[in-house]
Amino acid sequence: MSPDSPPPGSVRSAAEVNDQIRALWLRAGGTLSVQERAEYELLVVEWAAAVRGQVVEAA
Predict the structure, then answer these.
(1) pTM for this structure?
(2) Which of 12, 30, 39, 56 has its CA 20 to 30 A from that of 22?
């Protein structure tokens, strides 16, 4: 993952992670390298966990 990624166990909102995903795609120009693809996959997993956490909080 990128150097500015939070340490494992850190909690970011889905919006924060989504912003980072969008920035990654913009930097990549729409085509991800192997390293960017790996970062993207980790971000998507983090985003999904954040969304689940927000749903649980709302319930």
Answers:
(1) 0.74
(2) 56
29, containing H or E segment: none
**How many other β-carbons are positioned within 10 Å of the β-carbon of residue 28?**
14
Task: Give the chain's radius of gyration (CA, Å).
Answer: 12
Q: What angle do CA 17, 43, 32 make, to 5 degrees?
A: 115
Q: How does pLDDT run across 25-35, given as a tens digit for each residue?
A: 999 999 999 99
Q: Which long-range contacts (CB under 8 A, 24 or more apart) does 19-22 make?
A: 21/47
